Amino acid sequence: MQNDTATISALFNAANVEVEMGNLEEAAVFLRKAILLKETTNPDEPTLANDYFDLGLMEKALDNLEAAKDAMLNAQELENKAGTGRDLSDLYYHLAAVENNLGNFTAAKLLVEKSLPGIIAKYGENDLRTANLYYHLSLTEDELSNTEAAKAAIEQNIRIEETHYEPTHPSLGKSFYQLAMIERKLKNYEAARELIKKTLESDFAQEEVSPIETGVHFWSLSEVTLEMGDREEAKKIGVHCYNMIDEEIPEDHILKRDMYQYLFRNFPELFEETV
After folding, report:
1. Residues 6+ apart with CB under 8 A from 112
2. How deeply is 63 buried, as exposed, middle or buried, from its count of CB atoms within 10 A (0-12, 13-18, 19+)?
3. Do residues 157 and 164 touch, judged by C-beta distance below 8 A?
4. Residue 262: other Cβ atoms inside 10 A
5. Per residue in 61-93, pLDDT tens?
């Protein structure tokens, strides 16, 4: 038993060292071994719930979403079994994001709703964690075709983020784009176009701009402009978008193929041979 305790302690220490060095993959290996040994030695150990939660956060950071979900559900089960009545809003907060990324939108929505009161009580209505919950709620409502609810949630997210960030911050750019796509679904094309322009301002304010993301944003701007009836401006934006991604992304990338088809379908005159 004494040897097991020493081994468990050593494994946790090794995991912490690897985290401090930024080696999450190696840290996760040590943490998994420590939890397994602790669980084998003493399955009723009360700290196991925290250990599983920490592992879930690490798996989430490594984008091991199914593993993150399993670890967090283990943490939840242990907390419920212990019956301490401890607030689990932080656990629900992270698990909601995992479920959202896995495409389990109904589960994600329920977790956001369970987490939100506790997160607000603990951190405040204008905390960025609260904003992030509203962002995920907007995504889930949007995927569940609750468009007005999705709009209300992302507007709450933006309201909070604007108290923390400059207008061109990348997080705000992402939120503006989410709202733009909702406004487009609601056929509020002018509002959608202005929000996409804000997203592009955010793109170009960053030191490293992703040509793929920026290409998608320009494409959306072209589509919305076309939907507003301004065909020539939409064509101009579309051509600019294609020229930009043609220089920046690989020839066989799906975005380049789809953008080409969009131009060919909507502006066939661009492909007519001239004599």
Report:
1. 92, 96, 133, 136, 137, 140
2. exposed
3. no
4. 17
5. 999 999 999 999 999 999 998 888 889 999 999
Which residues, at least 6 apart from 203, have a Cβ–Cβ distance to it below 8 Å?
173, 209, 210, 213, 214, 217
Decide: 94 and 57 in contact? Cβ < 8 Å: yes
* Rounded-to-integer distance, Cα 224 and Cα 237, Å: 11
Burial tier of 209 (Cβ tally within 10 Å: 0-12, 13-18, 19+): middle
Averaged over 257-264, what is the pLDDT?
95
- How far apart CA 106 and CA 266 sit, in angstroms, is 36
pTM of the model: 0.86
Cα–Cα distance, 116 to 119 (Å, whole number): 5
Q: Give the other-Cβ count within 10 Å of 135's Cβ.
A: 24
| 3-class DSSP state of 264 | helix
d(CA 244, CA 68): 37
Q: How many CA atoms lie within 13 A of 151 on its CB side?
A: 13
d(CA 71, CA 49): 9
| Residue closest to 204 by CA, chosen among 190, 218, 184 | 218
